[in-house]
């Protein structure tokens, strides 16, 4: 990410853009979310290709998740994931206590109802990154008090 | 130097494969395809190794009478395979390695090209030229 | 006597070699200690510190003790290292000085001189002492003396060169010590010598290597030298170091070859360029292959010889080092490398020779390895050996082809000659393998001996290789070998064996999407299947190949022709139909419906245009293309209706099909897409958001493991299901590339039709698309004719012409000439029509089809609209103007009734919906030509105006005011306002006080009209009025004459009975009223008329002809300007005679300064209590009236006091409703009381001391 601010602003515009375009046309729940998520997916694929260009080969799944939480997150959001938990059955929960894309909005519950649209892209980002590392997954998100949020990664065993 | 360069997707189908001279194309396809066996073998072996040994370059996959086949696997499980004429003894491991690096960089650019969507065959001219440069160099 | 007398030949029995140590002096003595010495020496290891910073090693020393001879000492420049004596020992047990002086000294000196002469400094003198000897000696010297002497004489400054060994043959502790001391010394000296001499040797060797650029230099010589070193290391069991020597030689040689390739050849290299004459593989069974070594020494070795020898040595050492797997790996490299080097050096090699050499070598290596490790080890290291196996297989194969052993009719003469030559090159089998049955040599000889033998060996090898590859998971490699095998079988004309291998390989390539291998293998498979006569498979494969862009045009044409030939040749003799899958023959790209929404009415025609991408290289004549259609009755009838049609706008009716591009097998989309949704979780208590997020609805779908798609194989068992409905299209020519084919169908039963499969028949061959996906459907609907009538504007206004739109949906009915709509005229609604009424006819898909003018005739009962002719499933639209009369005209007969009702209705309206327009519904029954029943259409009109009236009085004079309010959105022109008394009594007269000219009334505004009411005789208690007003929309000019707006109402007892007059007088002596000072209020109530009908109520009391009535007055001041002191109300009895006056006085106090309006004086009828019943009755009645009057009040003066009174009286009423009898108050109808002092004001001036007043009041 060239400049953080730039990314953040761009992201906001993207979200509003997508939702506007939806207002014209049909808007069933999830359409925009999916659209944003797909954008993120593609971006994630590209990013991971760059970021992992010079890293050593990954040992295993966990190794990869760590990479996502540390290097990947840092390069994108200028901070690490604060806490990574897993059940060792392919479910990982990444907790970010001060998620960049929510920080500008508010703390606490105000705008809570808008939070999802600002998480979709990142969900895609993670999924795209993982898929490019050969891990099929489903990424969902959850916020109860902004700007903290949780991303849940469900790995698809293949 | 290289007589055949191939980029192979996660799922083992070729994203890009180019060889000279043209008439040996088929043979090269077979060679590259078989080399995947060794790639898999090496990668799985590599998983256990220590970090510093876990480099992306796999080294010589297998020699044949007339060719040497080298391999390289990106973290995104994309495989690069390079076939070199055995008579071409000038090539040292390090040169091969650096060629692979070049290949990887170029591939990364392809991935970040908006007109490319991941998993498709590579048609990027830039990439093509880069490969050509590696094939003509020397010999 | 151990040590051999005769000089040693420089022969190497490697392992039994030991470093040489010479012994001079007392041989018998030496002989006696030798056994102990030779077995004690190696017992303890010794650390060897080495030159060139090589790591120190612990090493067990052994040595070979030989008698000292001068010849043993190396001459200058002798490079032999194995025969080099590393240490010279002189033995003596002399203990007698005489003897020493006499003989020993000289002897030693001689010995020393010899050594000096050969400049060898590694020597040691051992003095053995034994007590036994001393016994029989007379002049005994101290033991040490001899040793000291020797030390003095010989070992100047290096005293350690002389050691003492005591009683070597006893076993006493002393003996032990001296032995140990001696051995240690010996070892140290040996090592010192090694270090020194080897170091020296290496230096020489290096200098020799540096000379390699000089012309005379020979690799072979150098080879021998360095190998010498290797031998020594091997001798010292330093195999690593030994190996290093060979590897260096190897590298050096390779470098030369490379350089030679690069152009600068060393002339010695030309030796190795002799053409190859023998190719009897590697020999690894003995540690050293002397023959080859000698060849090298004598510089006659060929490249293969050198390489073989070098490798055999490396192999030996590696096996000593227990690294067999490195052997196999190096072997492979070596073999490849040799082949290359021979190419590079342009060595002439008879065809097949190399193959033999490689084949033999592979097997030799494998057998050597098998020789030195057990099965388990081998099995777990297949990955190292399998390379050699497949290489061997490969070579044997090519030998087979070379020697014509693969053709089905054996080798020909020249093949045989070639074979003979090859075998000749092998020479005789080596003694060391002669015994072993399965020796490579034997194998090869046998394999080349006959076709059968070859087949056997080749198959064995292939199968072994395949098995190994498979066992270590190198499937692809296994497949490749399999393919070679298949080729072999094909050559042997046994396709049935070949097929399975081809199929497997193909499956693998297809699964991984490798286009070229696929094509190639398919071609082979095709041939195979052709031989096997598997018509269907062959044709299928052919079709795939014919469509394969990787083949040349001609090849494709060929395969295409194969299919066509079959198809036609079958025609003559109609046999089985062959069904093939379509996707290789042609691909369905698009499908286009017309009408585009894929929806037709019964009987309508639907055309489907499909775009077929023909994969064939040539145009193909197709008998028929058929699409089988599945019909299902549509369950939800809605889909069949016309509305659905309009809403259901499919994407321009074009359906595109994904092209199943077999080259990319993993279209990443084969797993379902995520279904993500926003998630809002509210807390159960107060449903405030407590979590939001994104959830995935179809996790279960996605997390299912999906097996890698093998869907891309040729869909087997494509069957043609014959559906009842089939769309056909015959005799089509499919040109290569895009073709458009149009199917037309006539819609029959209503329902949904789904396109299932497509089948193209060429002769007896049918190409079937087993299912068409994405699902393609079209719908057929039937529709009843219907009429729709709707206003153009959102609300219709009564009284003015309004446009109404008629829509006739013809449905299945066809409108014939003369069909018409019969509208039964509603009396209150007229249908106006002009000449230029036009109807527009649309098709059901809302394309305008035609336009026609409308014939409208109207009799007094019906209006008939003759419809233009229109086909079924069309729409006719036209507009009519209708005019609804503002309010129903009234026949003067039942005027009263109506009159009474009239205001009431208005009131209800009012209460109901504030001032929204009054609506009236107009029903029209229409007879449609398609139905015997007539349709009733209800239109709702809004009356644009609302009128209200009020009665105004000035003393006795009376006025009637009518207020007309415009509720509509438009403005109107008003004119000819007119008010008449419908009861037209002559003595009554209404004098208009209105402007004659017409007026404009804007939207949402009101206009007032006033009439004065004059009369001559007595007034009737009530009077009935009719108000009428002409109007027309301000926008248009009054073309059509409209009915005026009319409003009827009635006014009752409007004659003024009483006049109330209030007067306020300042306190006596003051000119003005002052705030806070009491003033007197005089209320005078005057009766204006004599007894009238209206007075006849229970308030009236008659005594003879003098009657009075009870009134109640009340002084209220809502503006609270006044404080009324004392009683503000009272009941008076009023004589009912004209001009009777009653005055009331009371005190009021102004609270503010300024012009204060008078307090309000009210007058009520005071009705004493009679019977509950009657009151009840009256109560109702007057409540009614009161209501009414209240309304009037509100309209008239905006003083809500009346409301107050009402509510109070209400409460009164309600109280007595509860039963307890009490008098009631009844307000007068507004007309009956005239308050002549309403609106009067009086000046009040502020008093000096306001504040005091404040107190006094509150």
From TrEMBL, chain A:
<comment type="similarity">
    <text>Belongs to the TRAPP small subunits family. BET3 subfamily.</text>
</comment>
<dbReference type="InterPro" id="IPR007194">
    <property type="entry name" value="TRAPP_component"/>
</dbReference>
<comment type="subunit">
    <text>Homodimer. Part of a TRAPP complex. Heterodimer with TRAPPC3. The heterodimer TRAPPC6B-TRAPPC3 interacts with TRAPPC1 likely providing a core for TRAPP complex formation.</text>
</comment>
<dbReference type="GO" id="GO:0030008">
    <property type="term" value="C:TRAPP complex"/>
</dbReference>
<keyword id="KW-0256">Endoplasmic reticulum</keyword>
<dbReference type="GO" id="GO:0006888">
    <property type="term" value="P:endoplasmic reticulum to Golgi vesicle-mediated transport"/>
</dbReference>
<dbReference type="Pfam" id="PF04051">
    <property type="entry name" value="TRAPP"/>
</dbReference>
<dbReference type="GO" id="GO:0005801">
    <property type="term" value="C:cis-Golgi network"/>
</dbReference>
<dbReference type="InterPro" id="IPR037992">
    <property type="entry name" value="TRAPPC6/Trs33"/>
</dbReference>
<dbReference type="InterPro" id="IPR024096">
    <property type="entry name" value="NO_sig/Golgi_transp_ligand-bd"/>
</dbReference>
<comment type="function">
    <text>Component of a transport protein particle (TRAPP) complex that may function in specific stages of inter-organelle traffic. Specifically involved in the early development of neural circuitry, likely by controlling the frequency and amplitude of intracellular calcium transients implicated in the regulation of neuron differentiation and survival.</text>
</comment>
<dbReference type="GO" id="GO:0005783">
    <property type="term" value="C:endoplasmic reticulum"/>
</dbReference>
<keyword id="KW-0333">Golgi apparatus</keyword>
<dbReference type="GO" id="GO:0007399">
    <property type="term" value="P:nervous system development"/>
</dbReference>
<protein>
    <recommendedName>
        <fullName>Trafficking protein particle complex subunit 6B</fullName>
    </recommendedName>
</protein>
From TrEMBL, chain B:
<dbReference type="GO" id="GO:0006888">
    <property type="term" value="P:endoplasmic reticulum to Golgi vesicle-mediated transport"/>
</dbReference>
<keyword id="KW-0813">Transport</keyword>
<comment type="similarity">
    <text>Belongs to the TRAPP small subunits family. Sedlin subfamily.</text>
</comment>
<dbReference type="GO" id="GO:0005829">
    <property type="term" value="C:cytosol"/>
</dbReference>
<dbReference type="GO" id="GO:0005737">
    <property type="term" value="C:cytoplasm"/>
</dbReference>
<dbReference type="GO" id="GO:0005634">
    <property type="term" value="C:nucleus"/>
</dbReference>
<dbReference type="GO" id="GO:0005783">
    <property type="term" value="C:endoplasmic reticulum"/>
</dbReference>
<keyword id="KW-0333">Golgi apparatus</keyword>
<keyword id="KW-0256">Endoplasmic reticulum</keyword>
<dbReference type="GO" id="GO:0005794">
    <property type="term" value="C:Golgi apparatus"/>
</dbReference>
<keyword id="KW-0931">ER-Golgi transport</keyword>
<dbReference type="InterPro" id="IPR006722">
    <property type="entry name" value="Sedlin"/>
</dbReference>
<keyword id="KW-0963">Cytoplasm</keyword>
<dbReference type="InterPro" id="IPR011012">
    <property type="entry name" value="Longin-like_dom_sf"/>
</dbReference>
<dbReference type="Pfam" id="PF04628">
    <property type="entry name" value="Sedlin_N"/>
</dbReference>
UniProtKB/TrEMBL annotation, chain C:
<feature type="region of interest" description="Disordered">
    <location>
        <begin position="887"/>
        <end position="913"/>
    </location>
</feature>
<dbReference type="Pfam" id="PF12584">
    <property type="entry name" value="TRAPPC10"/>
</dbReference>
<dbReference type="Pfam" id="PF23036">
    <property type="entry name" value="TRAPPC10_1st"/>
</dbReference>
<feature type="region of interest" description="Disordered">
    <location>
        <begin position="1190"/>
        <end position="1224"/>
    </location>
</feature>
<dbReference type="InterPro" id="IPR022233">
    <property type="entry name" value="TRAPPC10/Trs130_C"/>
</dbReference>
<dbReference type="GO" id="GO:0034498">
    <property type="term" value="P:early endosome to Golgi transport"/>
</dbReference>
<dbReference type="InterPro" id="IPR011990">
    <property type="entry name" value="TPR-like_helical_dom_sf"/>
</dbReference>
<dbReference type="GO" id="GO:1990071">
    <property type="term" value="C:TRAPPII protein complex"/>
</dbReference>
<feature type="domain" description="TRAPPC10/Trs130 N-terminal">
    <location>
        <begin position="16"/>
        <end position="327"/>
    </location>
</feature>
<feature type="compositionally biased region" description="Low complexity">
    <location>
        <begin position="1201"/>
        <end position="1214"/>
    </location>
</feature>
<dbReference type="InterPro" id="IPR056913">
    <property type="entry name" value="TRAPPC10/Trs130_N"/>
</dbReference>
<dbReference type="InterPro" id="IPR056917">
    <property type="entry name" value="Ig_TRAPPC10"/>
</dbReference>
<dbReference type="Pfam" id="PF23604">
    <property type="entry name" value="Ig_TRAPPC10"/>
</dbReference>
<protein>
    <submittedName>
        <fullName>Trafficking protein particle complex subunit 10 isoform X1</fullName>
    </submittedName>
</protein>
<feature type="domain" description="TRAPPC10/Trs130 C-terminal">
    <location>
        <begin position="1021"/>
        <end position="1245"/>
    </location>
</feature>
């Amino acid at each position: 990410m060239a400049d953080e601010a730039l990314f953040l602003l761009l992201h906001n515009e993207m979200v509003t853009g997508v939702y506007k375009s939806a207002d014209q046309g049909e808007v069933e729940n999830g359409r925009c979310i999916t659209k944003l998520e797909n954008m993120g997916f593609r971006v994630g694929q590209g990013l991971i290709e760059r970021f992992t260009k010079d890293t050593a080969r990954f040992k295993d799944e966990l190794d990869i998740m760590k990479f996502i939480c540390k290097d990947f997150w840092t390069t994108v959001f200028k901070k690490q994931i604060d806490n990574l938990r897993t059940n060792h059955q392919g479910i990982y929960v990444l907790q970010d206590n001060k998620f960049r894309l929510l920080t500008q909005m508010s703390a606490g519950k105000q705008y809570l109802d808008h939070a999802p649209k600002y998480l979709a892209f990142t969900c895609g980002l993670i999924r795209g990154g993982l898929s490019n590392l050969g891990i099929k997954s489903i990424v969902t998100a959850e916020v109860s008090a902004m700007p903290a949020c949780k991303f849940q990664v469900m790995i698809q065993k293949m | 130097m290289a007589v055949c360069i191939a980029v192979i997707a996660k799922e083992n189908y070729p994203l890009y494969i180019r060889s000279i001279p043209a008439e040996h194309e088929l043979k090269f396809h077979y060679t590259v395809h078989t080399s995947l066996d060794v790639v898999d073998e090496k990668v799985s072996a590599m998983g256990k190794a220590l970090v510093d040994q876990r480099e992306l370059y796999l080294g010589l996959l297998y020699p044949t009478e007339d060719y040497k086949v080298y391999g390289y696997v990106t973290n995104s499980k994309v495989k690069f395979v390079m076939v070199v004429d055995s008579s071409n003894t000038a090539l040292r491991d390090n040169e091969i390695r650096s060629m692979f690096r070049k290949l990887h960089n170029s591939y990364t650019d392809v991935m970040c090209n908006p007109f490319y969507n991941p998993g498709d065959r590579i048609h990027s001219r830039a990439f093509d030229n880069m490969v050509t440069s590696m094939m003509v160099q020397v010999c | 006597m151990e040590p051999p007398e005769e000089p040693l030949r420089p022969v190497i029995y490697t392992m039994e070699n030991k470093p040489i140590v010479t012994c001079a002096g007392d041989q018998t003595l030496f002989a006696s200690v030798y056994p102990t010495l030779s077995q004690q020496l190696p017992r303890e290891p010794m650390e060897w510190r080495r030159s060139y910073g090589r790591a120190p090693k612990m090493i067990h020393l052994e040595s070979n003790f030989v008698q000292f001879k001068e010849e043993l000492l190396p001459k200058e420049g002798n490079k032999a290292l194995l025969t080099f004596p590393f240490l010279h020992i002189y033995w003596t047990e002399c203990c007698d000085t005489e003897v020493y002086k006499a003989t020993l000294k000289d002897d030693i000196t001689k010995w020393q001189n010899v050594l000096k002469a050969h400049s060898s400094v590694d020597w040691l003198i051992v003095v053995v002492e034994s007590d036994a000897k001393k016994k029989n000696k007379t002049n005994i010297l101290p033991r040490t003396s001899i040793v000291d002497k020797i030390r003095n004489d010989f070992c100047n400054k290096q005293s350690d060169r002389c050691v003492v060994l005591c009683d070597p043959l006893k076993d006493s502790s002393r003996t032990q010590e001296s032995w140990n001391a001696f051995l240690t010394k010996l070892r140290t000296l040996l090592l010192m010598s090694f270090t020194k001499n080897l170091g020296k040797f290496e230096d020489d060797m290096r200098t020799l290597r540096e000379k390699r650029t000089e012309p005379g230099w020979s690799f072979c010589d150098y080879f021998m030298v360095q190998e010498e070193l290797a031998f020594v290391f091997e001798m010292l069991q330093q195999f690593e170091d030994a190996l290093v020597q060979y590897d260096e030689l190897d590298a050096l040689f390779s470098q030369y070859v490379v350089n030679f390739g690069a152009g600068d050849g060393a002339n010695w290299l030309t030796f190795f360029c002799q053409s190859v004459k023998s190719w009897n593989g590697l020999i690894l069974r003995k540690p050293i292959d002397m023959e080859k070594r000698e060849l090298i020494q004598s510089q006659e070795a060929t490249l293969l010889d050198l390489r073989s020898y070098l490798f055999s040595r490396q192999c030996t050492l590696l096996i000593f080092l227990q690294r067999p797997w490195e052997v196999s790996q190096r072997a492979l490299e070596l073999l490849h490398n040799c082949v290359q080097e021979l190419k590079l050096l342009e060595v002439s090699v008879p065809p097949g020779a190399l193959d033999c050499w490689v084949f033999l070598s592979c097997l030799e290596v494998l057998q050597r390895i098998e020789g030195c490790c057990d099965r388990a080890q081998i099995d777990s290291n297949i990955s190292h050996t399998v390379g050699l196996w497949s290489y061997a297989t490969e070579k044997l194969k090519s030998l087979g082809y070379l020697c014509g052993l693969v053709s089905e009719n054996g080798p020909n003469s020249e093949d045989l000659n070639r074979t003979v030559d090859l075998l000749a090159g092998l020479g005789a089998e080596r003694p060391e393998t002669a015994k072993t049955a399965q020796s490579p040599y034997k194998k090869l000889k046998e394999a080349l001996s006959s076709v059968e033998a070859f087949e056997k060996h080749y198959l064995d090898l292939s199968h072994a290789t395949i098995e190994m590859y498979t066992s270590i998971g190198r499937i692809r490699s296994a497949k490749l070998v399999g393919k070679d095998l298949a080729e072999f079988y094909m050559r042997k004309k046994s396709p049935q064996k070949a097929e399975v291998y081809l199929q497997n390989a193909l499956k693998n390539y297809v699964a991984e999407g490798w286009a070229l291998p696929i094509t190639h293998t398919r071609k082979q498979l095709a041939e195979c299947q052709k031989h096997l006569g598997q018509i269907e498979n062959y044709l299928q494969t052919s079709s795939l190949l014919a469509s394969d862009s990787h083949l040349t045009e001609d090849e494709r044409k060929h395969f295409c022709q194969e299919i066509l030939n079959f198809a036609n040749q079958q025609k003559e003799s109609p046999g089985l139909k062959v069904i093939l899958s379509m996707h290789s023959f042609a691909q369905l790209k698009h499908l286009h419906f017309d009408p585009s929404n894929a929806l037709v009415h019964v009987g309508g025609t639907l055309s489907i245009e499909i775009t077929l991408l023909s994969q064939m290289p040539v145009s193909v004549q197709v008998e028929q293309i058929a699409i089988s259609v599945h019909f299902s009755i549509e369950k939800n009838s809605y889909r069949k209706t016309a509305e659905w049609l309009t809403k259901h706008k499919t994407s321009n009716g074009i359906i595109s099909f994904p092209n199943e591009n077999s080259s990319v097998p993993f279209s990443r989309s084969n797993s379902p897409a995520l279904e993500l949704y926003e998630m809002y979780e509210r807390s159960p208590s107060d449903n405030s958001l407590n979590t939001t997020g994104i959830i995935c609805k179809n996790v279960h779908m996605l997390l299912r493991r999906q097996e890698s798609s093998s869907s891309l194989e040729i869909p087997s068992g494509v069957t043609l299901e014959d559906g009842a409905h089939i769309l056909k299209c015959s005799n089509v020519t499919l040109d290569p590339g895009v073709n458009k084919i149009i199917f037309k169908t006539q819609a029959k039963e209503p329902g949904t039709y789904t396109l299932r499969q497509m089948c193209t028949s060429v002769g007896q061959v049918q190409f079937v698309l087993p299912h068409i996906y994405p699902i393609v459907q079209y719908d057929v609907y039937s529709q009843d004719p219907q009429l729709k009538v709707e206003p153009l504007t959102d609300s219709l206004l009564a009284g003015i012409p309004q446009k109404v739109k008629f829509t006739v949906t013809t449905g299945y009915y066809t409108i014939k000439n003369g069909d018409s709509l019969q509208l039964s005229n509603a009396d209150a609604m007229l249908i106006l029509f002009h000449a230029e009424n036009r109807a527009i006819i649309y098709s059901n898909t809302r394309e305008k089809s035609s336009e026609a003018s409308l014939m409208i005739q109207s009799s007094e009962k019906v209006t008939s609209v003759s419809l233009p002719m229109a086909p079924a499933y069309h729409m006719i639209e036209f507009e009519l103007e209708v005019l609804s009369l503002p309010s129903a005209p009234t026949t003067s007969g039942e005027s009263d009734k109506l009159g009474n009702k009239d205001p009431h209705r208005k009131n209800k309206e009012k209460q109901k919906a504030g001032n929204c327009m009054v609506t009236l519904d107009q029903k029209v029954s229409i007879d449609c030509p398609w139905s015997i029943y007539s349709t009733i259409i209800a239109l709702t009109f809004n009356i644009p105006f609302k009128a209200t009236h009020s009665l105004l009085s000035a003393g006795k004079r009376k006025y009637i005011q009518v207020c007309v309010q415009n509720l509509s959105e438009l403005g109107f022109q008003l004119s000819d306002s007119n008010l008449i008394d419908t009861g037209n009594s002559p003595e009554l007269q209404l004098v208009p006080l209105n402007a004659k000219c017409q007026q404009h009334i804007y939207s949402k505004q009101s206009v007032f009209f006033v009439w004065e009411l004059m009369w001559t005789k007595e007034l009737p208690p009530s009077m009935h009025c009719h108000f009428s007003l002409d109007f027309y929309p301000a926008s248009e000019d009054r073309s059509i004459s409209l009915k005026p707006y009319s409003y009827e109402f009635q006014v009752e007892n409007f004659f003024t009975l009483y006049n109330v007059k209030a007067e306020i007088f300042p306190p006596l002596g003051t000119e003005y009223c002052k705030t806070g000072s009491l003033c007197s209020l005089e209320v005078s109530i005057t009766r204006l008329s004599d007894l009238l009908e209206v007075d006849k109520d229970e308030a009236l009391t008659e005594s003879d002809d003098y009657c009075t009535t009870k009134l109640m007055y009340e002084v209220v001041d809502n503006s609270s300007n006044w404080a009324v002191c004392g009683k503000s109300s009272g009941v008076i009895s009023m004589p009912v005679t004209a001009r009777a006056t009653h005055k009331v006085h009371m005190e009021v106090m102004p609270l503010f300064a300024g012009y204060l309006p008078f307090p309000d004086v009210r007058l009520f009828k005071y009705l004493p209590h009679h019977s509950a019943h009657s009151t009840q009755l009256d109560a109702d009645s007057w409540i009614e009236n009161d209501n009414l009057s209240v309304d009037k009040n509100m309209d008239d003066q905006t003083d809500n006091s009346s409301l107050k009174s009402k509510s109070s009286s209400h409460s009164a009423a309600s109280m007595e409703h509860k039963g307890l009898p009490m008098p009631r108050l009844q307000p007068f109808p507004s007309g009956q009381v005239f308050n002549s002092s309403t609106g009067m004001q009086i000046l009040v001036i502020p008093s000096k001391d306001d504040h005091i007043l404040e107190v006094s009041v509150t």
